[in-house]
Specification:
By secondary structure, the protein is of the alpha/beta class. The chain is 41% helix and 18% strand. It contains ten helices and ten strands. Strands 1, 2, 3, 4, 5, 6, 7, 8, 9 and 10 form a ten-stranded mixed beta sheet that branches. Helix 6 runs parallel beside helix 7 and helix 9 packs antiparallel against helix 10. The protein is globular, with a radius of gyration of 19 Å.
Length: 339
């Protein structure tokens, strides 16, 4: 077990992979620096991008609260997070997307959740910042997970959940001692197909390793996540939904369909039909976007199901293609920040 105390401060890990998000990265760091509960440290983990590693190293060379690291594992978000976990000093480790900003009390609400020693993870609420300035009329709130945000149908308040959502989440350090790190080969990998579900797989693995573990979402822990113009288009909506189906198939292959699809069944049988009904009602009442939202929900369900079917076939034929590392085995190379 780790020697870190459960409340030995909060380390924030931000994984970065492109210079195109330079201003977003700086804004994310600034939002951490402005927290009402100060972070112990901010770790910027650069995903196999030497120029960005060097540039960030120079930017934060004089900073004693920011460290810049190279991803010590294979390319991708999971290995980047594992690198950050391995070198972090906090008893709680929080994760923030590189294109998001946290509200001032984000870490304070996270830390409060760990007063209960059984709590192993606390997630928050992620609100979209649309590049166009407003939600596209056809885009259903039930599918905001497509753009990495909290979606309609998730319970409100401070509630127990099966899994937290990775871009706005925190874990007790001992959670990684018990379950290992994020699985590589399942989540996002830079510019490749936008897969996901690595946090779902980790959370299920964690509750199997620690059956008494409690995982929470506290919707007062808010971040605001930028949605670029390309992700406001229906083509991306379909691509992301299809990739989600592929990812869910890998998770179900690993942990079993009962646990792997537990939350999705309620979502598919209650939340989505209600969303279609609202869209149809809005269409009948001549409200903008009603038919588009209803159609998008149906298309999203069919596309995700198609990805799941193909992913299940592949997984049965070739087996799961991801692996779990023990965090203690990870080693990170620093890229310019102070140690």
């Amino acid at each position: 077990m780790s020697a870190h105390a459960p409340h030995g401060g909060v380390s924030v890990v931000i994984c970065v992979y492109t210079e195109d998000r330079w201003e977003d990265i700086l804004a994310a760091v600034s939002s951490v620096r402005a927290q009402s509960l100060p972070a112990l440290e901010t770790l910027l983990v650069v995903d196999h991008h030497p120029a960005l590693l060097e540039r960030l190293g120079k930017e934060f060379k004089e900073s004693d609260d920011v460290r810049v690291l190279a991803n010590a594992g294979p390319r991708g978000l999971s290995a980047g997070r594992n690198t950050g976990i391995a070198v972090s000093r906090g008893g709680i480790i929080a994760f923030l997307d590189d294109d998001a900003v946290a509200e001032r009390d984000w870490l304070r609400h996270f830390a409060a959740g760990y007063a209960d020693p059984l709590v192993m993870a606390v997630g928050g609420r992620t609100e979209p910042i649309w590049a166009s300035g407003r939600r596209p009329a056809w885009f259903p709130e039930e599918f905001d997970w497509v753009v990495g945000c909290t979606y309609k149908g998730l319970p409100r308040g401070k509630v127990r959940v099966r899994n937290v959502l990775g871009g706005n989440a925190s874990f007790r350090r001992s959670a990684f001692d018990a379950a290992g790190g994020f699985a590589t080969g399942i989540g996002r990998d830079g510019d490749k197909r936008p897969l996901g579900c690595e946090e779902t797989e980790l959370c299920i693995r964690l509750t199997r390793a620690r059956p008494d573990a409690v995982l929470l979402i506290d919707d007062r822990a808010v971040i605001h996540h930028r949605v670029p113009a390309g992700r406001e288009r229906f083509a991306y909506f379909r691509t992301r939904a299809y990739a989600e189906g592929l990812s869910k198939a890998l998770v179900a292959q690993s942990v079993g369909a009962d646990k792997g699809l537990e939350s999705e069944r309620r979502y598919a049988t209650r939340v989505l039909p209600a969303g279609v009904a609202r869209g149809v009602r809005d269409f009948v009442l001549a409200r903008p976007g009603g038919a588009g939202r209803a159609g998008a929900i149906v298309a999203g369900v069919l596309t995700t199901a198609g990805g799941y079917a193909l992913g299940s076939f592949r997984a049965r034929r070739t087996g799961a293609t991801f692996s779990v590392v023990e965090i203690g085995d990870a080693r990170a190379a620093e890229g310019g920040g102070p140690s």
